[in-house]
Amino acid sequence: MSAPYRISRRIEIDAGHRIMTHGSKCRHLHGHRYAVEAVCEAADLHHGGEQTDMVLDFGFLKDEMLKAIDAPCDHGFIAALADRELLTMFAPAGRPVGDWLADLESGVRAGGEATTTDTRLGTKLTVVPFQPTAECLARHWYARLAQPVRVRSDGMARLVSVKVWETPNCTAEFGE
């Protein structure tokens, strides 16, 4: 049963990706204007402090979304760790590709993703341990936001879902 209070916050980012195993055009490099919505709920509102009569301050939720989603991904490229051919295109000149890939893999294992600008053109690259489909991104960003929502709401709110618009007509959602 859902709690009686529910809020949502939406941000938008621009990012490129490709789905390496796709049988059609999504296997090609392309980009999207992603919209990402986080929905939080609480059984009660805060009774004191700066969040009085709120589930969670919208500004707090925005801050966490910017840290978890915008900072690593906006105006960058999101790539699967398994997409070695694509990653090789990003590898910086003058550094052994194998060492660079090993560093990315280590970062993904340690943090669930690795973001770098140590790329051939100095562009932002975020490497994830899954294909960067809207479904997987929704699950990934949900996992990144759930704990900060609890902390920023002093344990009163929980993240219900993260919805990702890959296009104005196509969405994927992950949540409890």
General description of the model:
The protein is 32% helix and 31% strand. By secondary structure, it is an alpha/beta fold. The protein has a single domain, classed as 2-Layer Sandwich (Tetrahydropterin Synthase, Chain A), CATH 3.30.479. Strands 4-5-3-1-2-6-7 form a 7-stranded mixed beta sheet. A hairpin with a 2-residue loop joins strand 6 (157-167) and strand 7. Helix 1 (58-73) crosses helix 4. The chain is elongated, with a radius of gyration of 18 Å.
Do you know the CATH topology?
Answer: Tetrahydropterin Synthase, Chain A
DSSP summary, beta strand count: 7
Q: What gyration radius follows from the Cα positions, in whole Å?
A: 18 Å
The CATH superfamily is known as 6-pyruvoyl tetrahydropterin synthase/QueD
User: Structural class of the secondary structure composition?
Assistant: alpha/beta
State the separation between the terminal residues, measured CA to CA: 11 Å
The global form is: elongated
Overall domain count: 1
Into which percent range does the helicity of residues fall? Answer: 25-40%
CATH architecture: 2-Layer Sandwich
* Main sheet: strand order: 4-5-3-1-2-6-7
| Average of the residue pLDDT scores | 96
Major sheet summary line:
7 strands, mixed
CATH class: Alpha Beta
Poorly predicted regions are none
With helices defined by DSSP (H or I, 4 residues minimum), what is the helix count? 4
Query: Strand portion, in percent?
Result: 25-35%
Order of helix and strand elements from N to C terminus = EEHEHHEEHEE
